[in-house]
Structures are given as C-alpha cells and as structure tokens.
Amino acid sequence: MNDADLLRYSRHILLNEIGVEGQQRITDAHALIIGAGGLGSPVALYLGSAGVGRLTVVDNDHVDLTNLQRQIAHTQQRVGSLKVTSIRTAVAQLNPGVEVHAIAERADAARLDTLVAQADVVLDCCDNFVTRHAVNTACVAHRKPLVSGAAIRFDGQVCVYDGRDDTSPCYACIFPPQAELEETRCATMGVFAPLVGIVGSIQAAEALKLISGAGEPLIGRLLMIDGRAMAFTEVRLQRNPTCPVCGAH
C-alpha cells in the first residue's frame, strides 16, 4: 500500500483486529458476487469502499425503475443499463483503485465452477434456488467460503458456509436440493427497502472478516432477521453427514 492507501483505509488500520496486515489481505483479495440487485448493491459498494482489490460481479439483468426503491448501486440515469456495468460504475466512483470484472450472464454450473475457483470468497446475492445450489456446489468442490444472504418481505437471513472447515455445513445441508421449496420473488411478494441493505451489509462484513481474519464468522450459524420487530435470532446449524453435496467431501 502507498501513502494514499494508508490514508484511505486508516480507519480499518486503526482496528487492532485488522491493522496494516489485515488491510493488505483485503487489498489482495478477490471476491465473487453472484447477483447485482438488492443484496449485491450494498455488498459491492462496501467491499469496494473497503478496498477489496478485485470484484467479479455476475448478473444478466438490466436496471429497471422498480429496482430503485432498494438497489442503491443503481440510479435513475442508468435505467436500462446492465446491472453489472451499473455496479462497476458505482464502485469506480467510490474507489477507482478496485478492479471490477462485470459478467453479464446468468452463470451455469460449469461457468460457476471456473469463477469460484478463481475467488477467495464468494457472496450469494441471487434470488433463485437453482443458482444458489450451483454456487454452493462449486464452493464445496473448491473449498471456498460462501456468504449467503436472502431477503423477502420483512424477513432476512445470513449464513457463512465454509468448505475449508470440515465441521461446517454447506447450503445443501440446510436446504436440500431435492426438497420442493417455494420460490419467493420480491416482484410478487414485496420487500422492505432497508432490509436488503441490512442483509447485504452483514454479508459484506462477513466477507471482510473472512478475508482479514478479524472476528468470528457466521460459520454454522444462521442469522435470521425480523424487520418488523427488528429482532435478530441465531440458529445453530449442523452438518448433514448424508448431504449429497458436501457428504462426499
């Protein structure tokens, strides 16, 4: 880091849990963000402002007027633009030293396998179970930590699934791929605007903790958020020894 970096990240460097070494790990890191909407927006902005050196953002959607109620990385002027290019612009305005690789596609299992292998930490900010399971499978295969978040209506949740930890469950341990889970979309169910900011900010915090080594990550702990009462509940999770994804690993 040069003098400008030391000044920019001074408030992190002042933290004993991070310091110069932890900030250097953040600067050297590569984060993969799947989804550039309500959760991906605060995740990208906070990781970018914190100085994560490389961000790869994957999403095939375009900015719509209805997104602006909660997707804070996008603007009225960028309606109609690809969300990934909009986020790249937003991060560059905050921190031009961060490299943002924008991938405008809905990544399939093969593509995710390649992208996950290149990342240090993966953040699931998508809105469908098929992609979530594909991301999880790739993270288990490559032993990459996965920070998963979800938000709908007034309810949110965050968890860290770390394939490097042999005691950590994976996403499929908790939400089996063969289970018939109802897809819920904010386009039909609604979502409280600040909730996605709360969940996305916690995801960014967990990713920075994993990268820098600060604190205790949410590994094996599902943090559930009730936005109506602003109540936080933690549920301990166990690894499923017969899990079809991580059981073989």
Description:
The protein has one domain (about 5-235): Rossmann fold, CATH 3.40.50.720. The chain is built from 10 helices and 8 strands. About 40% of the residues lie in helices and about 20% in strands. It is α/β, with parallel strands linked by helices and about 250 residues long. Strands 3-2-1-4-5-6-7-8 form an 8-stranded mixed beta sheet, with helices on both faces. The protein has helices spanning about 5-10, 10-15, 20-30, 40-50, 85-95, 110-120, 130-140, 170-175, 185-190, 195-210, and strands at about 30-35, 55-60, 100-105, 120-125, 145-150, 155-160, 220-225, 230-235.
The CATH architecture can be given as 3-Layer(aba) Sandwich
In CATH terms, what is the fold-level topology? Rossmann fold
So, the CATH homologous superfamily?
NAD(P)-binding Rossmann-like Domain
- Spatial shape: globular
Q: How many runs of DSSP E, i.e. beta strands? A: 8
Q: What is the CATH class name?
A: Alpha Beta
Secondary structure category: alpha/beta
Pattern of helices and strands: HHHEHEHEHEHEEHHHEE
